[in-house]
Design a protein that fits this description.
This protein is of the alpha+beta class. 49% of the residues lie in helices and 11% in strands. The protein has helices spanning 13-25, 38-43, 64-74, 80-87, 93-105, 108-111, 117-121; strands at residues 5-8, 29-32, 53-55, 60-62.
């Protein structure tokens, strides 16, 4: 394990499915909100339950940035780290990344009807 941790809402089947997806395809540890250590919780923003986070030794990525880093660490799609570097050249990229993250996060209850760790485990 790398020690890098993806922190997610473990009450959400859709979120749990994604966390498991990244865990299988990378060296990321996955940590649900209910499993956070005091040290991990102290590194997170006060409103940490509003989105996913990725903790590394030297950084905390939140929301869309956390998803972006998780995709890059899992190399999904292949070459995603290079794609991320390319997109970061554009001023509107960060805003678009966060908006896309929020669009998905705000619909996770509906998306969970189709893809959910709980649903797939039944």
């Amino acid at each position: 394990m790398s020690g890098d941790a993806l922190v997610y809402d473990d009450d959400c089947g859709f979120c749990t499915w994604w966390a498991d997806y990244f865990a299988r395809r990378s060296d990321l540890d996955v940590v649900g909100f209910s499993e956070l250590t005091d040290e991990q919780r102290a590194r997170l923003p006060e409103d940490f339950e509003s989105c996913a986070h990725l903790l590394t030794d030297d950084a905390v990525y939140s929301c869309g940035a956390a998803a972006e880093e998780a995709f890059a660490m899992a190399d999904i799609p292949p070459g995603s780290r290079d794609l991320t570097r390319f997109f970061r050249q554009f001023d509107d990229y960060r805003r678009l990344r966060e908006r896309l993250y929020r669009e998905v996060a705000d619909r996770r209850d509906v998306l969970g009807l189709f893809v959910s760790k709980d649903r797939l485990d039944d």
